[in-house]
Give the backbone structure.
Amino acid sequence: MNEPEAFKLLTLASARDNRTVDQAIAKVWATDLARIDYNLAVEALTLHYSETTDWLLPAHVIRCANRITTKRRLEEQHRLSIAERTRKAEEAERTRLIMQGVLQP
């Protein structure tokens, strides 16, 4: 996240908790959140405020962003697992039909 994005993120937080936002604060947050994508940070901010009234800190954004990415990764693994099971079942059915002479190899 860069400084203008951090400023926008802080402005979103300010709409919820009336914090004061300035360039110095945005610069520090940009440093703290340098490895977090802005859109993910907005999702993390939304998640944070949906669960607590605690004052938002960079650590909260990072923690919520990690939760979001972990959930997405697990969902993708589950989706791939289902696709793999489906593929194997289709392959087994095709083999069965070939063995019965219904399909040609």
Notes: Residues 3-72 form one domain. The CA atoms of residues 96 and 102 lie 9 Å apart. The mean pLDDT is 93. The radius of gyration is 23 Å.
